[in-house]
Amino acid sequence: METLVKLKTPNIIDINNKSTQQVNKVTASTLDITIRPVNNSMEVSNINHTNPIKSSNFVNKPFMEANTIGVSLSHLKHDCIIPVFSKDNEKTIAHQEFIELALSCAAKIFPHHTIDNPEIRVSHQIKGRIPEAIYKPVKELLDHEKTIYYERMAFIIPIPSIVEVINGNELSLCIGGVRSYNLENLYNRKTFEKFKFFVGFQNKVCCNLCISSDGFIEEMRVSNYQELEANIIDIIQHYKADQHLKAMAQLSNKALTEHQFAQLLGRTRLYQHLPKKEKSDVPVLYFNDAHISTIAKDYYQDNSFCRDSKGNINLWKVFNLFTQANKSSYIDTFLDRNLNAFEFTQGLHNAISGNTYHWFLS
Predict the structure, then answer these.
(1) What is the average pLDDT across 96-119?
(2) Which residues contact 142 (CB under 8 A, 6 or more apart)?
(3) Can you give the residue ranges of every domain in the chain?
(4) Is pLDDT above 80 for 356?
């Protein structure tokens, strides 16, 4: 059965397409875009290039920072070794295979849309050397004698031809995932491997990600490529883009006064030290004091999401202050905090609307 997302399309010229052919740029209102079921059989190495994968020009900020560095897919494929499960020497699903699988699924599900090159961030480099260089001093090692891989990896794949505008900010659809080898027991036999995957939107103003619960799987446990592919396709097909966009648009309709915002920040600092029993009765918040300090600074200084002349700030801006601060999170907590930012801000919206009590504003 086909899943439909309500969208509308004006024609534009894709500036990345040198042949200047027309493509459809889609906004979320009136046209039905079909998220297609696909054949569950595929080879990881065979990415469908009938839908051209283009390089986007709008990204001038990384989608996350923290202790990460940006790398290319080619670097992961040609310069990095693949870890194995030590007791049976079975290889793991490599970072690049996860990314290529996601690219292939996107090309199949969105065959008539532009798909950008993946943006990849890695951290926690694990170094080694080949046996022939076992006794060499580090300073004498040649490049071909060194081995590396990265313990943690996050990536996003933008689909910039599917867009919506919220509060003057253009959002484009994207998919992405996280892989952390530190969550695997590589000293044992091969079992289920763990992945995180999401489909959501990216704010082109700041490259912040917008994730909802139905577009995010915190832990996908798979044993092979076919199961990983089936899970990715299932998440994309069940993602309710129209509901997610509607919920985000509603954030622009409610605002906090300067006093309420100051109270919110004060409560977030108290939250970290609440007794366990009391903390269980209030909304969950994954952000720590360092994140809150960044949010406080950006309330005054951020060019896109700061307060207005009266000190008020709408909840769309509050949400983006949280997702902006989240860029300093480590890879393995990044997506979880991003989802928490959305759900937490939704809770604030409900409280201001008079629907619920909210400890952070009380």
Answers:
(1) 95
(2) 133
(3) 42-240, 254-361
(4) no
